[in-house]
Design brief:
Elements: H1 16-34, E1 47-52, H2 58-69, E2 73-78, H3 90-99, E3 104-109, H4 114-119, E4 125-131, H5 137-151, E5 158-162, H6 169-180, E6 184-188, E7 204-206, H7 209-212, E8 218-221, H8 237-244, H9 248-251, E9 259-261, H10 274-277, H11 285-309
Parallel strand pairs: 1-2, 1-3, 3-4, 5-6, 5-8, 6-7, 8-9
The structure holds N-carbamoyl-L-aspartate.
Length: 316
């Protein structure tokens, strides 16, 4: 096994071979999930706690289904109803949960770096389900699996990531992963939504959709993440849709077989045309959701194998 990590905190620490190993195992879980009996005992007897300090629909559901299909006992901690509301710190919450001896802790938190900090305080495997605008590794892995299955490879592709790059952990994790697998990554969006220093990330930067999408294999759209904006970054949603919203006309600049992706939740008529999002000949948005379950099963399976291989190890 090449995947040696004890936590999954980001794409940053992963090598090509480790990414490949997760995706190869995830491919097997896709077949498993399409079969009639969606239950294994791979994580039988294990306790998985999902701790979401930020709203989530698909990521939380996906981690819950993934754990249950592998036979783990899954608990969703409702942060709204927990002692966090009474002022308990993240670390105290983590230590309390740790004392209950979970094996896997899945955490989403609004602050960048919070999940890594927490991982230092507990002795179970921690999976980052999104920390602020920093990283969202399982999203990048499920996007990679979707691309690999659709295009037949995950290297030497031209991929445009479009929209609100500045506030997006999805963009950051994808830039790292797609770059590591030797693809050409383009960032397309208004200068106000482009992080400073983006030019130094080994990507090409465009502020015009027709130029940015020219001849790409993959178009990845992002939501305007208003919850992370402090002020106005665009003149109006109407204007934004006109210039940056993906519709058939703008997509025509990409390769004729280019696929359309979106991590969800989608704002139809803001960053993407609703009809295009539903067009099964171009959009792989539902495939992304399906791949999400398989990738999370693979990631939890591999982390547990590492833990089993090193019983009693202190996780750092
Ligand atoms: C993304 C997230 O939460 O970072 N969604 C997701 O996990 N599917 C993207 C977003 O919120 O726009």
């Amino acid at each position: 096994m090449t995947f040696r990590a004890t936590h999954l905190l980001g794409i940053e620490g992963l090598g090509q071979d480790e990414i490949q190993e997760i995706l190869d195992l995830a491919d097997q879980y896709v077949d498993f999930n399409r079969g009639p009996v969606k239950h294994s005992d791979r994580l039988g007897g294990r306790t998985q706690i999902n701790m979401f300090f930020e709203a989530s629909t698909r990521t939380q559901a996906s981690f819950e289904i993934a754990g249950k299909r592998l036979g783990a006992d899954v608990m969703n901690m409702g942060v709204q109803a927990s002692s966090v509301k009474k002022g308990e710190t993240l670390i105290d919450t983590a230590l309390t949960l740790n004392a209950m001896r979970p094996d896997l802790l899945v955490v989403r938190h609004p602050h960048s770096g919070a999940v890594a900090l927490l991982a230092q305080k507990v002795n179970c495997a921690v999976l980052n389900a999104g920390d602020g605008r920093h990283e969202h590794p399982t999203q990048a892995l499920l996007d990679a699996l979707t691309i690999r299955r659709s295009k037949g490879r995950l290297h030497r592709l031209s991929i445009a990531i479009c929209g609100d790059i500045a506030h997006s952990r999805v963009a950051r994790s994808n830039i790292l992963l797609l770059g590591r697998m030797e693809n050409r990554v383009r960032l397309v969006g208004p200068p106000t939504l482009m992080p400073s220093g983006a030019q130094d990330w080994g990507v090409e930067v465009f502020d015009d959709m027709s130029e940015g999408l020219r001849d790409v294999d993959v178009v990845m759209m992002l939501r305007l993440q208003k919850e992370r904006m402090d002020g106005a970054f665009i003149p109006s949603e109407r204007e934004y849709y006109h210039r940056y919203g993906l519709d058939a006309e703008k997509l025509a600049h990409a390769k004729p077989d280019a696929i359309v992706m979106h991590p969800g939740p989608m704002n139809r008529g803001v960053e993407i045309d609703g009809t295009l999002a539903d067009d099964i000949n171009r959009s792989v948005i539902q495939d992304q959701v399906e791949m999400g379950v398989a990738v999370r099963m693979a990631a939890m399976d591999l982390l547990m194998r590492n833990r089993e291989a090193r019983p009693g190890a202190i996780y750092a």
